Amino acid sequence: MLKKFTFSSRVTFVLKSLLVSYLLTAGLLLLLSLLLYRFSLSERVVSVSITGIYIVVTFLAGFIAGKREGSRKFLWGLMMGILYFLVLALVSIGVNRGISAFSMNFLTVLALCSGSGMLGGMLSLPHRPIPAHKIIGREELSRPPTANLLTIMSESQWQASEKSPSAHKTAR
């Protein structure tokens, strides 16, 4: 049975998820800056690493959102990727006092964030248990419980069953 979430609990969850996503981004960017300082990485490697961080973080945000919601997981993942990108774009525009520096990769980063968030939502595992009939089959569930238990056979019954497969008798 899927849980029903209220609008306010969903908004709170989305805001918390975005906050965790940006904290994870800050941690990974800090690690990247330490690697840059230690190994003097090229600009190309740093640029690819930053894009990789965006992809990993939005994938995880979409995965968690899809896992929590349980239905329409790809839409929740897509929403997380787009919201992550929008906050990223607004901060970038605010810091750079314009869109000129951000516009070169604007559509590429939007596609990567939304696509990886959607993929994370689609790949999220269901949080509800799998029904027993899907694991062992409906016909086995219809048998009485004692029919599934092992029965003890006497030595003479065992020998008879060895000679003829149709001679199976259960001990009482």
User: What's the total helix number?
Assistant: 7
Low-confidence stretches: none
The fraction of residues in strands falls at under 5%
Distance between the termini: 42 Å
Main β sheet profile: none
Keywords:
172 residues; 7 helices; mainly alpha; elongated
Walk me through the topology:
Layout: H1 7-39, H2 43-69, H3 73-96, H4 106-123, H5 132-136, H6 138-142, H7 155-163
Could you characterize what this model shows?
The protein is mainly α and 172 residues long. 70% of the residues lie in helices and 0% in strands. The protein is built from seven helices and no strands. It has helices at residues 7-39, 43-69, 73-96, 106-123, 132-136, 138-142, 155-163. The longest helix is centred in the N-terminal third of the chain and has 33 residues, at 7-39. It is elongated and about 90 Å long. The chain starts with 6 loop residues before the first helix and ends in a 9-residue tail after the last helix. The relative contact order is 0.11. The mean pLDDT is 80.
